[in-house]
Amino acid sequence: MTPAHPGPDFTALFSDRARRMNASAIREILKVTQQPDVISFAGGLPAPELFPLEDVRRATDAALTRYGSAALQYSTTEGHPPLREWLGRRAGIPAANVQIVTGSQQALDLLGKILISEGDTVLVEAPTYLGALQSFQPYGPRYVQLPTDDGGIDVDALETILRTTPAKLLYAVPNFQNPTGRTLNAERRRRLVELTGQHGVLVIEDDPYGQLRFSGEAAPSLYTLGLEYAGSVDANHIIYCSSFSKTLVPGLRDAWVQAAAPIIAKLVQAKQGADLHTPTLNQMIVTELLDDVLPRQIETVRRAYGERAAVMLTHIEQEFPGGVGYTTPEGGMFLWITLPQGLDSTRMLQRALDRNVAYVPGSPFFALGGGENTLRLSYSSATPGQIERGIAALGETIREALD
Ligand code: PMP
User: Is 243 near ligand 1, meaning CB less than 6 Å away?
Assistant: First the structure.
């Protein structure tokens, strides 16, 4: 059928904000890697066989019985009060300083919306979480990359940058970072909190993985150190985001923000415009699971990911040629590979796929480019047998690329 009218020039009608959006490089890659024979270390998916299916079924029933039709009604933007109270108690702060969000991804978008004006300087790790760049990008930030090493952000470099650059915001994933698996060490956390406090820079601490530690010692959150630094909840310059996605299940989209009252008040306004509230029943289901299922589940996931990471590291050690660097995560779902200079992980991907193994090239994780010789491996959703075969195939791919 011939159209009667060519229709509007949609592209020309997009807002400046929409023009700044781009397709996630990872999603495009994931499409290629989802063929059934491919061993994929590319996706950042939690292990589905560990999901507590029966517990969620029981909790859904319990929530519907407990709350009746209120479980299916509209509810407050701030979130289900018992859930906020539980989270507040755990953090040692009032429930009023906790905002429930629809995935921590929503927190990143709403925080971008309320904090970033066009041209504002946002400091990000190099590399950083791609989803944060996607959330912030429409609001027109000017990124400055912070150098990182195995201890996380280089705080000496941060100090130098802050001396000359008036920044608005610093975004960081201090625990088992996506994409590198690295953790910001305790001493640097203190300096980061002090430096940003002194320079009036707000910090978004994105912590979906903190509970999934399988080795080493936990360091205090930036949020806790911010409380000490500021002396009160409502003067804390750290905004903390976390989520039930990696500890419980991602599909319920339940996550939260801890922040000073003025930030929470503005988030509430932004969230009203976005989705009114996080689904009522989903919040109630999670609340039913907090006291017994959540701690058990965290143990299960921690143990499984610890084993998978160990298998991956052992085989990397055996199979990868000398000169290939890798991180040793103490928790979370990812590790980071640095190939010898001159190798390009984007170009190498097709050769890896030919051997039925997939990964994500590292360069999209750099806000300002770079990292062509890096790549991210996820060990969370592959079995130990797949990890062994996949790492052997990747080792061959790297050797071939070096020839
Ligand atoms: N932050 C980081 C660092 C992540 O890795 C993810 C998930 N990939 C998110 C936020 C978003 O998680 P969710 O929206 O499921 O809470």
Answer: yes
